[in-house]
Amino acid sequence: MPRRRTPVALAVAWCLGTLPVSSLQAQSSAPPAASKDSTAPTAPTAPGTATVTEPTGLRIANTLSWPVGGSKEAEQLPIHFEADRLEGSPDDVMKATGDVRLTRGDLIMRADQVTHRQADNSAQAEGHVRVMRRGDVFTGPSLNLKLDSLEGEFTSPIYRFARTDAGGQAARIEFLGPNRLRAVDATYSSCTSENTAEPDWVLETGSVLLDQETAEGVARNAVVRFKGVPILAAPVLSFPLNDARKSGLLPPSFDYDSKNGFEYSQPYYLNIAPERDATLTPTLSTRRGLGLDAEYRYLAPRDAGTVKASVLPNDRVAQRTRGLLDVQHQGNSEDGSSTRLTSYDVRIRRVSDDDYWKDFPRTLNSNITLTPRLLGSQLAVERQVNARAWGLGGNQATLYGKVQNWQSLKDLDTTSDVSAQLVSPYQREPQLGLRARSASESGLVWALTTEFNRFTNADSTRVSGNRAHALGQVERRFGSTAWYLTPRLSLNAANYTLDNNAALGTLKRHYTRSIPTASVEGGLVFERDSQWFGKGYVQTLEPRVQYVRTPYRDQSGIPLFDSAARDFNSYSIYSENAFTGVDRVSDANLVSVGVMTRLLDPVTAQEAMRLGVVQKVQFSDQRVTPNNGAPITQRLSDLLLVGSTSVLPRTWLDTTVQYSAQNNRVERSTTSVRVNAGPWRNVALSHLFSRDSSEQIDFSWQVPLSGRTPRLDGDGRVAKAVQTECRGSWYSVGKVSYSMVDKRISSSVLGFEYDGGCWIGRIVADQSAIGTTNSTRILFQLELIGLSRLGTSALKTLSTNVGGYRPLRDESSTLIPGASSDFHAYDD
Questions:
Q1: pLDDT in tens, 397-427
Q2: Is-annotated flag, keyword tRNA-binding (predicted)?
Q3: Torsion on CA atoms 122, 127, 128, 133, rounded to nearest 10
Q4: pLDDT at residue number 505
């Protein structure tokens, strides 16, 4: 689990360089608040389970340590002196003067004069004292230290750290023993020393006491000032000096929403146990009142999960209690054999009312992956089995079960179009099945899926019932790298028992059908060397043909539990069935013919261009149609044309077109072009068209408006010490989606960034259409380079909505990147 340090106090500890090497290994923070604008992270799966993406967190990638003391191994290293002159006796007093250089391991200290007294084994360095370690530099007029007890004082030290290119100064540092020290009147800032006036931002603290024995630090009177104005302050802060987490406040976030007014959120992290933590986030909305967001996370050897909840006890606008619940749990169990693994997944998502998706759309969009108006809950279990022991001869077999239901949020606005109402999908209560697949040495491959489903629906006017089905397939592939031929036989068999209620109407209660399908698919690959745009490529020509034969079966009496017409694309045009799901199998006597040509780099095999065209030819009418409509008599399907290229420098073009030769017109198309002229210089334009349905233009960009952009090092990261050259630069970034049908902007994100050298300011306007109304949110963020970001929503919104967006600084440039988190594996 993550390691939590109080943000401001941690920066004090870092800026003094007092943490030992072992205490600043890469670590991360507590989870973020489940705010209404952020994508809350999920805990990673325990060992042996499916991988769950981990979010970024409060990570400290490198180590900084005070140059004196440290590990026992470091203390055994010899001390080397170099100086212009050495005076005195080694048994009494030794004085080194003139460009004194002391080295011990990776520590280097320089001074005008160093005096060593053998009686108390003390050292006194005076005059231009300069201490360097791992790129970090400390300077001051004098340093006194007893080498045995490690007691002493460093007067007026000035420090600068290589990783964050930031530093500060203190009135003095008091060494109180091998494990304790105190820094008095310490500061920290990344603003350059060329600024003779007060730095744009600075962290100040009255005193910091660090105790390695108790692994705790205490900072008093800590204040962060920006342009001379205090923006964060705490009279007393305590924080850990090792890998332990600690409860405490996280950086706040604030924004303005046209529906909810000004919103302020202040997360508080709770370190419950090594394998459990929580974040509580009180949120104040000027329009809706006081709310609470909460997230609880847990991790076990084979289980992991999160519980997120939001509650608004008294919504001033709706005059009622509003809330959201999102529960996720994943895990597995083994019986000692890797081939017998049981995994399970639980997901519960519910909101308080139908208007929740309108009033809090970004909360749902950050937690729901399907649609904010359709919330799915499920309990799923899978068990891998040994198919050979069952006589199936397969090497892959899985038993599975699921219970799945939905909460569909209606549009209660009486002025809304009836077509905008959401149709709730069928619930599976339950779904039980077996999947098996095997391949013989001869190349014969078979697959089998058997399943039982109980379908119900929240809409009592829709048919409900049971379905048992089996899907079988056997195929054999012949060929080489230049050609292939794959004959295939398939069977779709199903039995239906429908409920005897008013929704049944004239349908029969019992229905059984079996539908076979035979197909054969083949293709060729031709290659030749060619020259395009003055560069050599390998050009391919790849014809592909597929024939499908499926007999007609009357299926008009079967309800559509999970079937729908397939979308027209490069995958579905070669599909044997024109429908998804099980309930419909299209009759077919057709051939799909296509050809594609590609340009490949002869060295890397990277694709530089792709052009293709595909069309279906029907030899007989298709009688099974969506919603039992009239047969499809058209012999030639629409043409599907695809193309993409990256031949032009820094330019990418993609297009897909559905063209009706019968009507001599384009039915649907998607075209996009993206130009990346360099870091922080990219634009993208796309056009989406669907006849009689929608037409939309999307335009996104990130471009500098004035000033210089940061330099990059050899690894493509932002170079150090770029703040002077970047100071005063302005950037524009955003995305606009315009509906040609509605003749209005359907959604937009417009942001401006100002690079102040040692700080970055962001302001972002996020507008979206919610039903028949618009919702606008204004986001603010202040990034103090080398310390932290205050407000996380602006950067997250830009990264989510603007393709190719790149922050002006790398994550490692912040000491405290933000209030997100990583879990680490918990081992019992």
A1: 899 999 999 998 887 665 555 445 678 899 9
A2: no
A3: -10
A4: 80
Q: Strands 374-384 and 444-456: what pairing? A: unpaired
The one-letter amino acid code at 220 reads R
Q: What is the mean pLDDT of the chain?
A: 82
Task: Please give the pLDDT value at position 4.
Answer: 39
Taking a C-beta distance cutoff of 8 angstroms, is the pair 382, 402 a contact?
A: no
Could you read off the pLDDT of 507-535 as tens digits, one per residue? Answer: 899 999 999 999 999 999 999 999 888 88
- How does DSSP classify residue 410? P
Residue entry with tokens 């419909």 = 584
Per-residue pLDDT at 366: 55
β-pair partners for 788: 784, 816
Domain limits, the chain: 7-245, 417-427+440-450+458-647
If one counts every other C-beta atom within 10 angstroms of the C-beta of residue 411, the result is 19
Cα 369 to Cα 376: distance, rounded to the nearest angstrom: 10
Q: What share of the chain is helix, strand, coil (3-state, %, to 5)?
A: 5, 55, 40
Residues 6+ apart with CB under 8 A from 84: 97, 98, 99
Which CATH homologous superfamily contains domain 7-245? Lipopolysaccharide (LPS) transport protein A like domain (2.60.450.10)
Interatomic CA distance for residues 85 and 682, integer angstroms? 61
DSSP code for 352: S
State the first-to-last Cα distance of the chain, in angstroms, to the nearest integer: 13
Per-residue pLDDT tens over the stretch 270-280: 989 989 999 99
What percentage of the chain has pLDDT greater than the value 90?
47
Strand, helix or coil for residue 477: coil
Give the separation between CA 68 and CA 147, rounded to whole angstroms. 9
Secondary structure, 3-state, 51-84:
CCCCCCCCCCCCCCCCCCCCCHHHHCCCCEEECC
What pTM value is reported for the model?
Answer: 0.78
- Within 8 A by CB and 6+ apart from 703, the residues are 680, 681, 682, 683, 731, 732, 733
